[in-house]
Design a protein that fits this description.
heterodimer; A: 235 residues; alpha/beta; Rossmann fold; six-stranded mixed β-sheet; four-stranded antiparallel β-sheet; 38% helix; B: 458 residues; mainly alpha; 2 domains; 19 helices; globular
């Protein structure tokens, strides 16, 4: 579905990505794990066109999307839930959801999807008219995901959904990620919480300072000594 | 606020509905304009009528800047540049247009034009050809300002925050200096006949100002424009375009990820704001007693508008309008301490009532209330704050009169102090991002009168 070949990104003189290749197949959850500054967020932003890549290519459903602008990608079925949640704090929960469907104009289907999203995240229904800035961290993350789903994506890019959340909430969030995937959305998940990410993902890539260090089925990586030592804090 | 889908249901897109949606704001605008000009104006003195007119122009300016600084969250500090462009273009069209069409540069007033003591002669028609020219001139001024806004915005709105602020500041200064360089002597009929046509409208008085513009502006024109501006801004805020603008203010990266073309919307927001600033400029240029000058494009003027927007609450249309009225009227109040002193009549009772209410609210705050976030003290605190400000002003006026100080001279200091106090006590401005009719704004009132829980006689 998505294939990234030798993707390079530079911020001025600093190279953030040294040529990354990865593949996401339809129906999968693929996770990209790594430390701070490894280039995980940059990879997602380069895929969704928010950051311009300086080399390499991105293909999506057989089309080269390397130079496609973000607003067109949303229409092509790629939704990006950005790092740090990025909810629109001074807008209500409902307005946030409406903005998620900004690229669409099929009002009836949007209303349906909103209903679907709210049944996936019942907490949001109680807070529909509240400013998003007044939600708790976990609720904001739920809103960010629900908002991304409003674009009715075939591919969902999730950037660190566990960031700054209590373990209990992280459990819930990952449970929902599974449900979203089971309903047919392919997911590319960027995470620092390798433990949880490897649990839900089918396959995984380990990113180290702008390069892919390891890749393979998630269970296999979770079992490997290197990953256990470096990312799971075991042994 | 209704969701976009609900609104889509509320307004079925029948051609009749669309026409009605387009027409009623114009009818309201004309209605209020006629009311202001033909009913209100004859019943007040010329001085008050001038104040009300100035407030109207300030409201248009503040609401237009709200679209950039409030909705889109971009910090423009050169808004007066667009005011001046609109003013000079409209003035030029009306002045030289009058020469070309009517043979003289003076106004042909109808019943709806003119302000102060300068009115239409008895038996004047409702609408004159001169007023049609004036209307065309206003629109031209607005459109040229919008075009310029688009041209300036296209390259500069890729910038963010401080960088954009510097570019807009530069723009205002460029406009100011360019106008200063125009010829100081306005052309006469003979000179117009001899000059090449393109040179004529560029002669706008240079640093001496452009004072001979026909004085058409009246309460009718200003308040019709105020209504159109307010309704437009409100609809913009509610529309999906408006949501796109707001999302850029909230989080540009997230907005982009939602499929909002951020630069495109920023530039459009900028151009729309420039249009309304240009209209305000046109109205200003044709106001009796005003000689449009290069200073009107300067930073001082831009800053006045920013103060209104920040005080009102970035993103609040009604807030900006209220703040515009206060900021425009305050210096006039400061100039007449006798009036200001009498404000004590309002300030003292407010304080008394405020303290009494605070006392009532402070008794028996139950644990449940505290947990539910019911704040009974919010309303008394607001009343106390309001009372303090009003009483403070009247005390200030008392001492000013006693020591023969002209408070008007210290206007900027009082502004600055007001801004500082505002930023400390209420950094989000008067209304924040809310509008006056948002029920959430009245939570303090609801909380104060909320029935007490807990002990109940039974």
């Amino acid at each position: 579905m998505l294939s990234v070949e030798n993707l390079q990104v530079s911020y001025g003189a600093i190279r953030a990505l040294h040529g990354i290749s990865l593949k996401v197949e339809k129906g999968e959850i693929v996770t990209l794990i790594g430390c701070n500054g490894a280039g995980k967020t940059t990879t997602l932003r380069a895929i969704s066109g928010i950051v311009r890549s300086s080399g390499g290519s991105v293909n999506y459903e057989g089309r080269d999307i390397t130079r496609v602008r973000p607003h067109e990608l949303v229409r092509m079925g790629i939704a990006h839930s950005p790092e740090g949640r990025g909810v629109f704090a001074n807008l209500t929960v409902e307005e946030n959801l409406d903005l998620g469907a900004f690229a669409r104009s099929d009002h009836a289907a949007i209303a349906q999807d909103k209903e679907k999203g709210l049944s996936l995240f019942p907490r949001l229904r109680e807070r529909l008219k509240q400013f998003a800035g007044t939600l708790s961290g976990g609720e904001q993350q739920m809103l960010a995901m629900a908002r991304a789903l409003m674009a009715r994506p075939r591919l969902l890019l999730l950037d660190e959904p566990s960031l700054g959340l209590a373990p209990q909430v992280v459990q819930t969030i990952f449970q929902i990620i599974r449900e979203i995937n089971a309903a047919g959305t392919t997911i590319l998940l960027v995470e620092q919480n390798a433990h949880m990410a490897l649990k839900v993902a089918h396959r995984a890539y380990v990113l180290e300072v702008g390069e892919i260090a390891m890749e393979g089925p998630a269970q296999q990586l979770a079992a490997s000594d290197e990953v256990r030592k470096a990312y799971l804090g075991v042994g | 606020m209704a969701s976009l889908q609900d609104r889509a249901k509320l307004f079925p897109s029948s051609p009749l509905g669309a026409a009605w949606r387009l027409c009623w704001p114009i009818l309201v605008a004309l209605g209020l304009g006629v009311l202001m000009q033909l009913v209100v104006r004859p019943s007040i003195d010329a001085y008050s009528s001038t104040q009300i007119l100035n407030i109207g122009i300030a409201i248009i300016l503040a609401v237009s800047l709200t679209i950039v600084n409030g909705f889109t969250g971009q910090f423009s500090i050169g808004h007066a540049g667009f005011l001046a462009v609109g003013g000079y273009v409209a003035g030029s069209v009306a002045f030289y247009g009058s020469f070309a069409i009517f043979g003289s540069g003076s106004a042909k007033l109808g019943l709806l034009s003119g302000s102060g003591l300068y009115s239409a002669p008895a038996g004047a028609p409702l609408i004159t050809s001169g007023e049609l020219l004036f209307f065309g001139a206003l629109l031209t001024g607005g459109l040229v300002a919008a075009l310029l806004g688009y041209a300036v915005g296209l390259p500069s709105l890729r910038l963010r925050g401080d960088y954009l602020a510097i570019v807009t500041l530069g723009f205002g200064e460029i406009v100011r200096v360019l106008i200063q360089q125009t010829p100081q002597v306005l052309m006469t009929r003979e000179a117009i006949a001899e000059s090449p046509a393109w040179k004529v409208p560029l002669s706008v008085g240079g640093s001496l100002g452009f004072g001979n513009v026909p004085k058409y502006t009246s309460l009718f024109w200003v308040y019709a424009a105020v209504v159109i501006t307010l309704i437009f801004a409100y609809r913009l805020k509610q529309s999906s375009t408006g949501r796109a603008l707001l999302s850029i203010r909230e989080d540009e990266i997230a907005a982009e990820a939602m499929g909002v073309r951020t630069t495109y919307y920023k530039v459009w927001g900028f151009a729309i704001a420039a249009f309304f600033a240009g209209i305000a400029g046109g109205l200003y240029a044709h106001t009796l007693g005003i000689s449009l000058s290069p200073v009107d494009a300067g930073f001082q003027k831009s800053f006045d508008i920013i103060i209104m927007v920040v005080l009102g609450g970035l993103g609040s249309i009604s807030g900006a309008a209220i703040a515009a009225a206060i900021v425009t009227y305050l210096p006039e109040l400061l100039r007449s301490p006798e009036t200001l002193e009498k404000f004590a009549v309002i300030g003292v009772p407010l304080l008394v009532v405020g303290f009494a209410m605070l006392g009532m609210a402070s008794r028996n705050v139950s644990e449940g209330e505290r947990r539910a976030g019911v704040d009974r003290r919010a309303l008394p605190r607001f009343i106390l704050g309001l009372g303090t400000i009003i009483l403070g002003l009247s005390v200030l006026a008392f001492f000013a009169r006693k020591f023969k100080i002209n408070l008007g001279d210290y206007r900027l200091i009082i502004y600055a102090l007001a801004l500082i106090i505002m930023m400390i006590t209420r950094p989000q401005g008067l209304l924040g991002v809310r509008e006056v009719w948002d029920s959430a704004l009245y939570r303090p009132v609801r909380d104060f009168f909320a029935p007490r829980h807990g002990r109940r006689a039974s």
